[in-house]
Each structure stands twice: as structure tokens, then as C-alpha cells.
Amino acid sequence: MALVPTAELVAGAVRRGGAVAAVNVVTLEHAEAICAAAEAAGIGVILQISENAVRYHGGRLEPIAAAGAAVARLAAVPVSLHLDHVTDDTLVARAAEARFSSVMYDAGALPHGENLARTARAARVAHANGLWIEAELGHVGGKPDAPRSAHAAGVRTDPGEAEEYVSRTGVDALAVAVGSRHAMTARTALLDTGLIGRLRDRLDVPLVLHGSSGVPDDQLRAAAEAGIRKVNVGTALGVAMTRSVRAVLAGDETLVDPRTYLAAAREAMSGTVGQLLSVLP
Ligand code: G3H
Ligand code: ZN
């Protein structure tokens, strides 16, 4: 169909009171798997490439972005390209040229004042380049200068602080700390859906859930029903891919063609994304 702006997919989620999946791309096979699952479900999806993934590709933004954009353009459903967890300001300025329509600026580990100032500056640069920008509030109440990641265990986003943060930074969406954590390989997270509802009522920007790999299906659905509009998933694909590669290689010691195990891994990742898409309203 088309490479569409992330803002369009998120606006669609807002309209239907659901959530769009934003899934991490590390290799070409990830992008293919995600788009295949989205096509099978007939649902649009966000391909997101993290700054860490760019680092994995030697710090070069363009090759993996071009691969993602090409797969997106050929997809039978709307797909967007999002640059995730950016801490390097120069990447914000380069994103649009590399076909991204959105960025997530991650100043969450910085003291609150610095997070505000740097995020506000990143938002100005992003908007000047036509980009939609998401950010995260990195600390919760009490200790305004304590650097705590929004996704550290036990951290929660305070609705009042979030409202002030959004109005002072001018971001288009907010990643909130409501009980999920990054890189969980077991789906044992317990979300505070009451807090999601209070954040939704207080803020006039869409809410984003990070670390969704560790969230069970019923809670993902409840989170979307409570007000989460973008659901970020990464680790679950790593789990599916690695498990599949291990199994294929263990089954045949003579195997040397990488297509054999990468095809199976791609299929496994696609299954994981398909399951996610079937859960989100
Ligand atoms: O921004 C990306 C997501 O927050 C991924 O988190 O790897 O824990 O699913 P996850
Ligand atoms: Zn994240």
C-alpha cells in the first residue's frame, strides 16, 4: 500500500479507541516478518528502529532505514517508520531524510530539568523537519532531580507532572511508566490500568506503552481499552527468533545455508506479531 506517517496510524488508533503496534526492527527479516503479519491481519503497523539497532549496524542510519522503508512501501497495509529511543540529537535532525516520519526522544535517564530542556529542543527540531515526536517522562514525583528511567521497576508516571511536561516540551505523544519494563522475557508485568485511565483523562496527547513484551495478552488489551494508543514490542521477537534458530540448528549439524534458519526465524517472528495484532483493539 504505502509508507505512511506514524501520526496517521496513531490518529487511527485514537479514532477507534484502540492501539497500533510498533515493533522493533533489527534485521531485514524483522521488517519482513512484521509486515507479513500485518498484511495477514489487514492492520497497519509501525516499524521502529532503535538507536541501539542503528549502533548495531555500525552507527549507519540509512541502510537499515532504507530496508525498512522499502519493505513498508511494498506492504499491502499502511506501514510507518519510527526512530526509537534516540539520545543522540543529531539523529533527530537526520531522521526525516532517512524516511522516518517520527522519533521517540529518550531523555528519560536525565534529571528532570535537563529532560525537559533537551526534549523541548528535540521537539522543535523534529517539528521543523515535519516529524511527529514521542518522549518519556523519566521520573515520578518527589525527587525532581533524581535520574530514574521511566521503565525502572516501581516507577510510575504522575498525571500532573505529565501534563506539565507535555505542555512545556510540545511533544506529540508520551511514553508512560505504568508497570511495564523493557527486555522482559516472561510475560509477568502487572499494569496499572487505573493510572492509564487517569493519564488519558488528563493529557491531550496519545499514550505509549514501552516494554510490552512482558505484558500478558489480557493486560495489553485492557491497557489499550484504558487509553494506550501505541504499543511497543521488541524483545518478544528476539525470543521467537532465537528460539527458532536454536531449534533449527540443533536439528541438523550439517546445515550451513543461513536462509534455512532465517526463514524459520522470520516465520516465528511473524507468528509473534500476528498474536499481538490479534489482541490489540
Ligand atoms: O521501544 C521499544 C519497546 O519499548 C520494546 O520493549 O523489548 O521490552 O518489548 P520490549
Ligand atoms: Zn522502549
UniProtKB/TrEMBL annotation:
Q: Which cofactor does it need?
A: Zn(2+)
The yes or no answer to whether the keyword Lyase is present is yes
EC class of the enzyme, as a word: lyase
Q: Which Pfam families match?
A: F_bP_aldolase (PF01116)
Q: Mind telling me which Gene3D superfamilies this protein's record contains?
A: Aldolase class I
What is the organism of origin for this protein?
Streptantibioticus silvisoli
EC code(s) of this entry: 4.1.2.13
MF terms from GO for this chain are:
fructose-bisphosphate aldolase activity
Question: What SUPFAM superfamilies would the database entry show?
Answer: Aldolase
Q: What is this protein called?
A: Class II fructose-bisphosphate aldolase
PANTHER family documented for this protein? D-TAGATOSE-1,6-BISPHOSPHATE ALDOLASE, D-TAGATOSE-1,6-BISPHOSPHATE ALDOLASE SUBUNIT GATY-RELATED
The reply on keyword Translocase is no
Keywords associated with the record: Lyase
Q: Which InterPro entries match?
A: Aldolase_TIM (IPR013785), Class_II_FBP_aldolase (IPR050246), FBA_II (IPR000771)
